[in-house]
Sequence to fold (322 residues):
Amino acid sequence: MKRLLIIHTGGTIAMSEDAKTGAVKPNPLNPLHETIHTVENIDLIVEDFLNVPSPHMTPKDMLHLAKRIDKRVMEEKIDGVVVTHGTDTLEETAYMLDLIVETDLPVVITGAMRSSNELGSDGPHNLLSAIKTAASGEARGKGVLVVLNDEIHTAKNVTKTHTSNIATFQSPQYGPIGIVSKRGVHFHHHPVTDQRFVVSGIYKRVLLLKAVAGMEAEVVDSLCELPIDGLVIEALGQGNLPPATIPSFERFIEKGIPIVLVSRCFNGVVQDTYGYEGGGKELKNMGMIFTNGLNGQKARLKLMVALEKTSDRERLQEIFQR
Ligand code: ASP
Fold:
């Protein structure tokens, strides 16, 4: 019989809707304890780690969660881990765990778009699908997986794409790597796993900034005064920026603050294609670090983690190219 550890952290999956006000709020006791406590042939150990809406999660909470997972799988006989989480920052926690959890046992994260007492509540079904996935031998060695709405996604590629639809989680460009059906778990792709970093703390401050047409240089200048260790820019298209901002971004690099470039486009990678003012070629020559398809929120976490290991530009470029 497989033994899985279920770690609850909160989110809509653990919340209820107030019939009078319509407000969706956390419960003192997680309703999932009542709905799913046994699954045929799987022994479930349940831990209430947190009970927070996911906008309250911080990178430090994510680190504590990762350490907790590693501690429990070291100390007990466990075959896989399922984490329940709010959907707003689920992709960030999933990716952070993907970067720093040491175990290669299956770690699967799930959540819900409708709270526990709403009609068509998707929480119990998603939790069951996540349990099936974590219990499947095939989930091992695929990095942290995100399971909702019968689909299995990698932590690296998945993102929340809709504010309320239950099919919100998608992996732009790549799609899911498997599905969960009534009969079982079916993988149809093997992901290229990301790097792992062994970190004891997350201390670096990294800012995420979105580029827009006519972006003001003064805004960028004022950010350069902040005590930050790194900057991620969601650049335009293939990796271009408004020319008026270039001298301001140069100041970051002169101060030794690394700048990582992602695209604000939903699909594709950034590259040094354009040779005009503010184009990718100029940005690369300035020393900006180009990424390989990560979105802004994940690149921020990766830079936080990577900066715990190195601040060398060449090394950071290698880390972000993978
Ligand atoms: N706002 C909620 C949260 O992230 C949304 C959800 O869980 O679906 O906690």
Notes: The longest strand covers residues 2-8. Residues 11-12, 53-54, 86-88, 111, 113 surround aspartic acid (CB under 6 Å). The domain at 206-320 is CATH 3.40.50.40 (Rossmann fold). The chain has two domains: 2-187, 206-320.
